[in-house]
Amino acid sequence: MTTTENERPKVGIGIVVIREGKVLIGERLSNHGAKTLQIPGGHLEFGESFEETARREVEEETGLKDIVVKGVISIGNDIAYDKHYVSIGVLAESESGDPYDAEPNGSRNWQWMEPDDIPENLFLPSQKVIRNWRNGTVYSD
Length: 141
Description:
Largest sheet: 7 strands, mixed
Shape: globular
Structural class: alpha+beta
Helix content: 10-25%
Radius of gyration: 14 Å
Strand content: 35-45%
Number of helices: 2
Number of strands: 7
Distance between the termini: 36 Å
């Protein structure tokens, strides 16, 4: 990996969205990790809290509104796909609405999956966040 002197890691937020014990999973289409499965997520924007980023990214990618953020479930230093991210995993619940492909160039095929049925081909940061959630790690303010 080649870097420039001013290059710094980015901050990514991955959101485990739960409904009735199932996890929201979609297919990643763009950028690094294309054609893997993922949880909703994206970049932390300047001035945003983790909760604000989680709400915005879930709505932008899946169309779901009114998620309830429960807390942070993981922190990772991810160097993969020729990228370097500090990855923050967040747990959220959704009680209503049907997910759809709100960003069809970035992701698609959002569906609720039983945790034991999630396929192995997960985007690496999503895989870590799901693993921590399944291990029962939740940090909240």
